[in-house]
Design a protein that fits this description.
It is a single chain. The chain is an alpha/beta fold. The protein has 2 domains: 3-80 and 196-277, HAD superfamily/HAD-like (Rossmann fold), CATH 3.40.50; 85-193, Hypothetical Protein, Haloacid Dehalogenase-like Hydrolase, Chain: A, domain 2 (2-Layer Sandwich). 32% of the residues lie in helices and 23% in strands. It is built from 10 helices and 14 strands. It has helices at 8-12, 21-32, 45-48, 85-97, 124-132, 164-169, 198-208, 226-231, 243-246, 259-277, and strands at 3-6, 36-40, 60-63, 68-71, 76-80, 102-105, 114-117, 137-139, 151-156, 173-179, 187-193, 216-220, 234-237, 250-251. The strands form 2 sheets. It has an 8-stranded mixed β-sheet, with helices on both faces. A 6-stranded mixed β-sheet has the order 8-7-6-9-11-10, with helices on both faces. α2 crosses α10 (259-277). The model is unreliable at 272-282 (pLDDT under 50).
């Protein structure tokens, strides 16, 4: 292992939004072993600062599901992507016609600011997110309000509400599914610039450091981690992950039990077995 990539909410963070002392110790130990430490999160930089101290022991953070990469020590944005204004306005027009609740976010690093369209008054998770970001949210009444955007966030109560028709019309953006970090039930679909994801950002970091996917250990817990987990040489999900994901990947303990430390230990043990048996476990 030369690079460790971990999701944040529901993975590295426990249910109290804290990182365990054991996982902090593991992250510091990995640095001494020259392992690059990366967090891959759906959070913006603004949201990330609420849960991580400026000196938190990681090297890089993949922000907003891959929309940007930050050098955490220098707090400098290395990359960022955007949906151009014309395309963003076309997407917004379609979503408004379909009466879909959505938020369209400004470019990084100011993507905690967004415009919103709210039609379904029974969409409680959408209302919760609006309350949390009230100082930074403005209603969208005309698509000409939209400039270039980092991403769209669509919020549904069930995944099937995001229909095949929507997918076919939105075929020129990358669609990422995630479970709401607010009520842990609602379904979010993030519309990103084409090809942008946690995995693509991880690939950029690996290329920058002349590493291959086989050098990477990844840990996640949700659907928006799947591309990253499929790409990495060795992948784990937490015990609190969706059942569908636990069937596809190696499993470690839940996020309240220092999952990062446990998966590092498990991975080291599995590598010994791999050497002895010359078999791939993934």
């Amino acid at each position: 292992m030369k690079m460790l990539i971990t999701d944040l909410d529901g993975t590295l963070l426990n249910d109290r939004q804290q990182v365990s002392p054991a996982d902090l110790q593991t992250l510091r130990a990995l640095s001494r072993q020259n392992v690059l430490r990366v967090i891959a999160t759906g959070r913006s930089y603004f949201s990330l600062k609420k849960v991580l101290a400026p000196d938190f022991p990681v090297d890089f953070v993949i922000l907003s599901s891959g929309a940007g990469i930050m050098d955490w020590k220098r707090k400098s944005l290395l990359t960022h992507s955007e949906i151009k204004a014309g395309q963003a306005r076309k997407i917004a027009s379609f979503l408004m016609e379909q009466k879909i609740d959505f938020m369209v976010h400004d470019k990084l690093p100011e993507n905690h600011h967004f415009l919103f369209f709210h039609y379904n008054q029974f969409n409680g998770d959408f209302k919760t997110r609006l309350r949390l970001y009230e100082p930074f949210a403005k209603p969208l009444t005309d698509v000409t309000q939209i400039d270039s955007a980092s991403q769209f966030v669509l919020i549904f109560r069930r995944p099937e509400e995001f229909t095949d028709k929507m997918r076919s019309v939105l075929n020129d953006v990358h669609i990422i599914r995630a479970t709401s970090p607010l009520d842990n039930q609602s379904v979010w679909f993030e519309l990103m610039p084409f090809g942008v994801s946690k995995q693509s950002a991880a690939q950029q970091l690996a290329d920058r450091h002349r590493l291959g996917a086989e050098d990477v250990l990844a840990l996640g817990n949700d659907y928006n981690d799947q591309e990253l987990l499929d790409w990495a040489g060795r992948s784990f999900v937490t015990a609190n992950a969706a059942e569908e994901l636990k069937k596809r990947y190696l499993q470690t303990v839940e996020n309240n039990q220092s999952a990062l430390s446990k998966c590092v230990t498990q991975s080291a043990g599995l590598r010994i077995q791999d050497t002895q048996s010359d078999k791939m476990l993934k």
